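Sample log: Transcriptional regulator.
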Amino acid sequence: MSKAIKINLDMVMLQRKMSLTELSERVGITMANLSTLKTGKAKAIRFSTLLALCEALDCKPGDLIQLEED
């Protein structure tokens, strides 16, 4: 059984009705980097980035990150 980390950024953004452009402006992260996170192609995320996303989206890290088991 393998495990994987899933980023739920797209779901949280949809719930908050926030666009990628707006989130990029609020957090100070390029749209390209946010897109990489959103599509699950990122290999890592800095805690400072995670904190900034949580503050901008008014959520907790567990809302953005999920452990999946295959």
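Observation: The chain has five helices and two strands.
Observation: Residues 13 and 59 are 10 Å apart (CA to CA).
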